[in-house]
Structure to design on (272 residues):
């Protein structure tokens, strides 16, 4: 776990940690796409042949998205390995803009913030509409 | 030789929720079952009830460290009960040596991709079930 750092009273993280946290989150999003891709593939087996075309289009789109995320994740991972630990990124304002509570909590924890224990499926904080 | 790994239970131990969930999804889509723990103590407790086919263990988990988990699973002079892959950020040569000495079969430095981990787990399981090669036989039999 990262040591908490502050800039102007808000959470800050090294550029390496920032890119590392981004890489893991993109990798997780990619894993979810791969799961979705498999789900569509399994569903397709149960459908009549004439109804599979649209699902096939969806499957291609998910596959493309998965490759897109794999590329972005690899990019962020490589940058995290090569960027200085000394450069501090003020991440607080960016964290405050994340409306998905569980994602904001995970990223804040990765930057050394205290874990709030918000989990997937928790209704509070997923969309800050009110 | 190909063997069927579908349904094997892989235990993942990592305090980082993102890494834990990513590994869980990738392994389950590949056909494995998974169990997870976020601390060394929780991992040891879970393994008292259900023995996994393999363990993916972050060396820096809180409570009971990864190295302590390894030591608990592998009493001196014994082999670990299942293959163990240790992972961690900035693993030093010393970390790797200590993990191997305490029974880890493989070590993997973070960060890595989901595809990387699948390859390493498959290799870990292949090595665990593969019959010994002639080179691995005791010298007296060669």
């Amino acid at each position: 776990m990262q040591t908490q750092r502050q800039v102007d009273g808000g959470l800050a993280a090294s550029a390496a940690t920032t890119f590392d946290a981004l890489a893991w989150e993109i990798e997780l999003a990619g894993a979810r796409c791969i799961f979705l891709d498999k789900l569509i593939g399994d569903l397709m087996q149960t459908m009549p042949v004439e109804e599979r075309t649209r699902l096939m289009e969806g499957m291609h789109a998910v596959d493309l998205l998965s490759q897109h995320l794999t590329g972005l994740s690899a990019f962020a991972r490589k940058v995290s390995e090569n960027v200085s630990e000394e450069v501090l990124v003020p991440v607080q304002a960016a964290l405050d803009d994340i409306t998905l509570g569980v994602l904001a909590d995970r990223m804040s924890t990765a930057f050394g913030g205290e874990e709030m224990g918000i989990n997937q499926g928790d209704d509070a904080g997923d969309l800050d509409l009110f | 030789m190909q063997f069927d790994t579908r349904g094997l239970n892989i235990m993942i131990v990592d305090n980082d929720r993102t890494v834990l969930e990513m590994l869980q999804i990738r392994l389950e889509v590949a056909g494995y079952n998974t169990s997870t723990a976020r601390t060394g103590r929780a991992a040891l407790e879970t393994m008292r009830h259900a023995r996994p086919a393999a363990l993916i263990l972050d060396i820096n988990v809180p409570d009971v460290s990864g190295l302590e988990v390894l030591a608990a699973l592998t009493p001196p002079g014994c082999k670990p009960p299942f293959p163990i892959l240790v992972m961690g950020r900035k693993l030093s040569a010393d970390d790797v040596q200590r993990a191997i000495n305490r029974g880890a079969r493989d070590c993997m430095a973070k960060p890595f991709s989901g595809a990387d981990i699948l390859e390493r787990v498959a290799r870990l399981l292949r090595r665990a079930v593969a019959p010994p090669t002639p080179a691995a036989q005791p010298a007296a039999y060669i």
Strands of chain A lie at 5-7, 10-14, 88-90. Confidence is low (pLDDT under 50) at residues 124-130 of chain A. The interface with chain B takes residues 1, 20-21, 23-25, 27-28, 30-32, 34-35, 38, 70, 73-74, 77, 80-81, 106, 109-110, 120 of chain A (CB under 8 Å).
